[in-house]
Amino acid sequence: MHIETMFSMNEIFRSIQGEGVDTGCPAVFVRMAGCNLQCRFCDTNHEEKFVLNDKQLIKRIIEESQGTRLVVFTGGEPLCQPIVSIVPALKAFGFCVGIETNGTIETDPLCFISLSLSPKIPFRQCKVPRCHSLKLLYPYLNGVTPEDYKMMYAGYKFIQPIWFEGDVVRTLQVQQEAAEEVMRIGNGWRLGLQMHKFINLK
């Protein structure tokens, strides 16, 4: 007998991935409600707006995809909910499943085609052992620095300047400082800009 799994949702939408290794790729974004952190700089609305069971969620993703194969679970913190349980079903429908996480909840990176880690905690506290894409926010917060995360295995490593909504001067200043920081640390790090915000996409 099938036992329904319920999911607390914020929104599901189709757009262009603007961050990390999949930048520029069309994707279906599944924004889960809720987060286990309260970051003062967070610009994402992740309050609960509706609830779906597992079958309804998969159906909504299929409907929204319009042929797009990449599905990205984001939040908030998507791993606060049992999304791993529906990954096999999504793969069976031909989807490539990615996730964006803050690193506070343990998961198997091999479950996803792309795991994007944007840690808000020091490396010694991080529960994710490896990732496809590591994004450190700049200015650095909570002791999260390239030096702290030098032992993290990641396919790609980005310094991502924080976007200050409504403050163009501050945003540009931080982007320039982040670029200088990338040149300072070198060693495979890249500047990671949020492309979707430059072209005014969700």
Sheet with most strands: 9 strands, mixed
| The CATH H-level homologous superfamily | Aldolase class I
CA distance, first residue to last residue:
39 Å
How helical, in percent, are the residues? 10-25%
Q: Beta-strand percentage?
A: 25-35%
Strand order of the largest sheet: 3-1-2-4-5-6-7-8-9
What is the fold-level CATH name, i.e. the topology? TIM Barrel
Shape: globular
Question: Ranges with pLDDT <50 over ≥5 residues?
Answer: none
CATH architecture annotation: Alpha-Beta Barrel
Per CATH, the class reads Alpha Beta
Overall pLDDT level? 94
Order of helices and strands: EEEHEHEEEEHEH
Please compute the radius of gyration using only Cα atoms: 17 Å
Q: Would you count the extended β strands for me?
A: 9
Category by helix and strand content: alpha/beta
Number of domains: 1
Spell out the key features of this protein.
single chain; 202 residues; alpha/beta; TIM Barrel; 9-stranded mixed beta sheet; 9 strands; 20% helix
Write structural notes for this entry.
With 202 residues, this protein is α/β, with parallel strands linked by helices. The protein has a single domain, classed as TIM Barrel (Alpha-Beta Barrel), CATH 3.20.20.70. It is built from four helices and nine strands. It has helices spanning 54-65, 87-92, 168-185, 195-198, and strands at 6-16, 26-32, 50-53, 70-74, 96-101, 114-117, 130-138, 153-161, 189-191. A nine-stranded mixed β-sheet has the order 3-1-2-4-5-6-7-8-9. α3 links the parallel β8 (153-161) and β9 (189-191). The longest helix is centred in the C-terminal third of the chain and has 18 residues, at 168-185. The mean pLDDT is 94.
